[in-house]
Amino acid sequence: MDLELRNAAKEYLLRYGGDSFPNLFREARGAIVMDDGGREILDFTSGQMCATVGHNHPEIVKAIEEAGRRAYHLFSGMIPEVVARLAKQVATEWMPQGLTKSIFINTGAESNEAALRIAKMYTDGYEVLAVGGSWHGVTGGTSTVSFASDRKGYGVPPPGIFLFPEPHSYRPYIKGMSAEESALQCLEISLKMYDMASTGKRAAILMEPILSAGGVLVPPRSFMQALRKAADERGMLLIFDEAQTAFGRIGHRTGAEMFGVTPDIMSLSKTLGGGLPLAAAVTRPDIEQNVFEKGFSFYTSHVSDPLPATVGLAVLKVLNEERLVERSRETGAYLRNALLELQGRHEAIGDVRGEGMLLGIELVTDRETKEPALELGRITTEKCFEKGLSMNIKRRPERGSVWRIAPPLTISRQEIDRGIAILDEALTESLDIAARPSHRQSA
Ligand SMILES: Cc1ncc(COP(=O)(O)O)c(C=O)c1O
Q1: Order of strands, edge to edge, in the sheet holding 279-283?
Q2: How far is the CA of 294 from the centre of ligand 1 (A)?
Q3: Residues 232-258: pLDDT tens digits?
Q4: CATH number at 3-56+323-442
Q5: What residues are paired with 217 via a beta bridge?
Q6: I need a labelling partner for 248 at 20 to 30 A (CA). Which of 210, 323, 326, 340 fits?
Q7: Is 426 exposed, middle or buried (0-12, 13-18, 19+ CB in 10 A)?
Q8: What's the 303 CA to ligand 1 centre distance in angstroms?
């Protein structure tokens, strides 16, 4: 371990929020990352939920080498052959019917910005309905429609953003109703309020098919259908942000496919690049034609760049060759069973939820009151890391203490067993620490 480098990181890097580790990191392969001491850590979050095909998959390495031989970057008006190939594959093999026109850019925030710009120009409106607990990025437009992040301190958001309550299977907003009834009631009330407040300049309804940062919340199918209807009735475009849900993560090609609801625009990112910065917004030809005629522009330095597109093609190849969509369902069921078994032995696990290989575990101090176990989440996550397992916890008093578990789809059952054993041990030890009177006072 190089102490000087650790100090350089402290001295020269701007801190950008979220949890970070004291260690530096050196390498990553498959489901394993290695720190600056050469210690191997099992990665239960696929990096930042991107490396679905595993870290540094040989096909990705090969793709980067190939782009090196051909081209990394071109003038944005020159469409590389690989971009045409990727656009065709995304449209014909992965998207729901009708979504065939793509723009390829780099980050999730960018693809959502593109989707919002398309929706605004198409409808000539600006109002956007977004859901509580959402996360769509940190750029100017996307941060104003994100509600799982901190919004304080960044100035005045634009007008026209409306919020509706997130469907929550574990903590429905309306007491005494089923989660589904509560979600539908909340939506109906929100739409009535929105209709009262609207200036008539309606643009879009934006939603992640499974809210990830919001706590791995899977909406009822009826809710997604109601959103489709709400958009149609109001002449708004429905946008699905499938940064995390597309390309196999949830055991389906997309969230749209899982719910049987087709949006007007789909935003793709993390799981398309498999760890490299590739994103896309995909829409119908009639919408594309409409905004094209109005002069639509989303001209960036790296739009249609060949390097990430070559990687995107490699990701799709690996997903097909290694049957990762099916494997996500199979391995996801195995992982979920292991977590349910853990829940059977640990009272602190209040809920296990999610789809495929995007699972959430909610920690509570009491299963009756569902009081979030924030401190327990913190200590256990730290202990997991000490023992060689990287876990991502979202801890907010209003949203609970939830681990997002999203390992690479290529992870082996032995690796899952190892991760679960570490989690079990870490949780047992942390429960012991959290229960000590001295700790309760200081926490
Ligand atoms: C659902 C969703 N949308 C958008 C984003 C933003 O993507 P990026 O960080 O690549 O801008 C994220 C990132 O976590 C996300 O989870």
Answers
A1: 101-105, 279-283, 265-268, 237-241, 202-207, 127-131, 161-164
A2: 28
A3: 999 999 999 999 999 999 999 999 999
A4: 3.90.1150.10
A5: 211
A6: 340
A7: buried
A8: 18
What is the three-state SS of 201-229? CEEEEEECCCECCCCCECCCHHHHHHHHH
Fill in the amino acid letter for 75.
F
Instruction: Quick: pLDDT tens for 179-236.
Output: 999 999 999 999 999 999 999 999 999 999 999 999 999 999 999 999 999 999 999 9
Residue boundaries of the structural domains of the chain: 3-56+323-442, 59-321
* Residue 425 and residue 391 in contact, taking contact as beta carbons nearer than 8 Å: no
Question: What sign has the CA pseudo-torsion 179, 181, 187, 189?
Answer: negative
The ligand 1 atom at the shortest distance from the C-alpha of residue 245 is: 1
CATH number of the 59-321 domain: 3.40.640.10
Amino acid at 82: V
d(C-alpha 311, C-alpha 127), whole Å: 35
Q: What is the dihedral sign for C-alpha 98, 109, 273, 121? A: positive
Residues near ligand 1 with C-beta < 6 Å?
Answer: 107-109, 112, 135-137, 208, 212-213, 241, 243-244, 269
Residues annotated catalytic, as ranges: 135, 208, 241, 244, 270, 404
- Of 111, 136, 211, the one to substitute when testing ligand 1's pocket (max ligand atoms within 8 A of C-beta) is 136
How long a stretch of residues is the chain? 443
